[in-house]
Amino acid sequence: MNPVERVWGGASKVYTFKYEIYKRLVDSADPHKFTRNVDAFHAAAAIGIRLNITANTDEKDRREELLNVYTIDQNEVLWSVISALHPDASGAERFEKLMGYADFGIERLEDEFKVFGNLQAAVDSILSSS
């Protein structure tokens, strides 16, 4: 287990309930969308963290693999933020929180993207309404 996996409670993969949304918002050929899943994940997590909201998920929803955990937090920035927000949580609990923040954020990004047609306007709209 590498050090990044260790701090996140042993997680080696990032999963999402919102995989289809990532597929719609990530397209390296479209300048109005994210070029990589990791970029979409970072923006989505940041939005969820900034608004302090995690996604409401139905237990019958099934998470799908999105990324390897070592690609999301190479500099431990997310770990530092989540640890500060949830100091009493275990590594696994912090990881669940991070995925919940990202699931909320990607949903919110898609809603605003549908209105504005580009990511910058979507992010600006989200941040200006918070």
Mind explaining what this structure looks like?
With 130 residues, the chain is mainly alpha-helical. It has a single domain (12-128), classed as Arc Repressor Mutant, CATH 1.10.1220. The protein is 55% helix and 7% strand. It has a two-stranded antiparallel sheet. The model has no long low-confidence stretch (mean pLDDT 90).
Question: What's the topology here?
Answer:
Layout lengths: L2 H5 L5 E4 L2 H7 L11 H15 L12 E5 L8 H9 L5 H26 L2 H10 L2
Antiparallel strand pairs: 1-2
Helix pairs in contact: 2-5, 3-5, 4-5, 5-6
CATH topology: Arc Repressor Mutant
Shape: globular
User: H/E series, N to C?
Assistant: HEHHEHHH
Number of domains: 1
CATH architecture: Orthogonal Bundle
Query: Share of helix among residues?
Result: 55-70%
Measured between the Cα atoms of the first and last residue, the distance is 38 Å
Stretches with pLDDT under 50, minimum 5 residues: none
The DSSP helix count reads: 6
Keywords:
130 residues, mainly alpha, Arc Repressor Mutant, two-stranded antiparallel sheet, 6 helices, 2 strands, 7% strand
In short, what is this structure?
Strands 1-2 form a two-stranded antiparallel ribbon.
